[in-house]
Amino acid sequence: MAESYLRFFLKKSLKNGLSVLFQKNFAIIFLFGILLQYYISPSTQPKMSVSFWINGIKTVMGIGVVALLVKNYRFIYCVVVMLPRDIRGAWRFSRVLKRIRWADKRNLTVTKIFDLYADRNPNKICFYYEDEQWTFKQVQDMSNQVGNYFADKGFAKGDVVALFMENRPEYVIVWMGLNKIGVCAALVNYNLRLQTLLHSFEVVKAKAVIYGNELSEAMQELMEVENLLSTIPLYCSGHKNGPILKGVLDFDSEISNASRSTPKRLRDMTINDSLFYVYTSGTTGMPKGAVVKQYRFMMAANGIHYMNCVRESDILYDSLPLYHMTGGMVGIGQALLFGTSVVIRRKFSASQFWKDCIKYNVTVAQYLGETCRYLLAQPPSPEEKLHKVRLLSGNGLREELWQEVIDRFDIHQIGEVYGSTEGNCNTSSIDSKVGAVGFIPRIFYPLLPMTLAKVDEKTGEPIRDPESGLVVKCQPNEPGELVGKIIKNHPIRDFQGYTDDTSTSKKILRNVFRPGDYAFRTGDILVMDEFGYFYFKDRTGDTFRWKGENVSTTEVEGIISTLLGYKDNVVYGVKIPNTEGRAGMAAVVGSLNLDKFASGIIKSLPAYARPLFLRVMDTMDITGTYKFKKIRLQDEGFDITKIKDSLYFLSGGKFVPLDRDLFDKINSGRIRL
């Protein structure tokens, strides 16, 4: 592998740099070098002798090197200037890999490593939650109870249990306990409802569902249309002696008498085993289950720990969804893999953020997408300067807000991270470069198994070289889709895929770096500058991002079609000034009952997936293959000056007419979205 990369690198060097010597300028350089040697050689040296030609060739080579330096001076300058960053980054990344090798050599899994810390510091606080304090010993004991209980119930390695719960320590404890016996929890988004929720249970073939009491209403709605109890057992956690749905088991009571000893099956678990399932929405429609291996979790947690210098003595604030990579892997992983205390909050609150940081003596806090904008939208308060937070880590911080966050909140370091749970392309910022989601050393760019591929802006498909058939790679400052070479069984470069083969195949690109290879498509458009910094630009395809979540237009279109009796409709994302991502907008053909439609949308879709804008049309253009044309609709957005159709805005649970006054308020930011 290394030899092939070396040959590839030398080939590129010859093509891009040494062409000065061996292509059209060779004759000029050669003649100039020989003439120069002729005039500078000593008068005593015979002209055209062997020694003369040897010295002449040396002169030619010297001139060639100078020419090469002149032609590539900017590249060399960038490499030299960024050398301290690149050395620091390489050293930190080597520690990430060393930690993985350490776990692999000792046959350690996530829960085995946690047990090492729990045995060493049993009384240290593992989780802070509201007014509760959970020690490492308490977490260890309860996770053992969960594992032993389900082992006694006949659950075996490879089985799946759906976990549908809002943030709290028990959330982490449940999936830990299940995995101690080889059972994988499927971390279901707690915003899902009805058909989408049912699909999330079914797609992973869950053999049981554990849900939080706070989501009893959502479960009851689902049970009214689907008899879940006839197929799988349901457990309710956290009802605290309150009412419980008929036929549902009391989870807390059920596990209370289980053994607190380490489950015997834990010793059979390896670093290559599955840890849990997460869900991701793409262009294929409903949520797709993606398996997370032990080493993938370790990579996510190790990355921030070493690249951003998180310490065991830190206290980390995690108010992000625990079903999400940032909150549930990067954040929680600091407690499980490094013994760092973590504060868990049920849901993010901009008004309580800095107050919590002071209350719990937080030193590292996480953000995701719009959360930093929500913090900036809060009135100034003393707490935003009195905290001890030195590092904000996460992803989705808009470039225009970056410096304001640093200045207003007195934050010394921003640890922006790029990556996806199931993907194999991950980068991180280590020097708080404004707007950068990560970097790679420019000098090693041709050697790395990831690249930016040029894509057709309309189709979203990669542009290929007509001769080689390989993808065309972007030059610095050219936008392209980030793709990563798939290397099977590699802890970083492998792609595990989803629970269905169709969704998996759509994320795989063939013939990228060389004929016959495979690469993972991130679906994200990034730009790399001349210093090797990466900047996020947009998402490809129909999927758009809003409120830190990916929204599948196919899924939303299907639900709208059902609500409106299969009327023609399309869903797309529209840009709103001064907001991150794109808000949902639906275009519908024909008349409709706006109040009934709004009620159906709110009941069927999580908040981030609901279309905020509605366009009612008489007809809709289609292609020759009977696909709706979205490009014109996306370009027009919700601009009332360009659109003659009726436009509406979702406000207060109803669709209200979008007039000039409302349009201006939305664009100026006077209405919080």
Task: Describe the model.
This protein is α/β, with parallel strands linked by helices and 673 residues long. Among the domains are: 107-347, 3-Layer(aba) Sandwich (Rossmann fold); 444-486 and 504-536, Luciferase, domain 3; 544-668, ANL, C-terminal domain (GMP Synthetase, Chain A, domain 3). It has 23 helices and 28 strands. Strands 2-1-11-10-12-13-14-15 form an 8-stranded mixed sheet. Helix 11 (216-225) links the parallel strand 5 and strand 6. Helix 8 crosses helix 9 (169-179). The longest helix is centred in the first third of the chain and has 23 residues, at 83-105. It starts with a helix and ends in a 5-residue tail after the last helix. The model is unreliable at 1-24 (pLDDT under 50).
Short structural description:
With about 675 residues, the protein is of the alpha/beta class.
Helix run count: 23
Q: Would you give the CATH topology of the domain at 107-347? A: Rossmann fold
Distance between the termini: 50 Å
What Rg do the Cα atoms give? Answer: 29 Å
Strand ordering within the main sheet? 2-1-11-10-12-13-14-15
Shape: globular
Q: Any idea of the CATH class of the domain at 107-347?
A: Alpha Beta
User: Largest sheet, described in full?
Assistant: 8 strands, mixed
Determine the fraction of residues in helical runs and give it as a percent range.
Answer: 25-40%
Uncertain parts: 1-24
Number of strands: 28
Proper CATH architecture of the domain at 107-347: 3-Layer(aba) Sandwich
The helix-and-strand class reads alpha/beta
How much strand? 15-25%
Mean pLDDT: 85
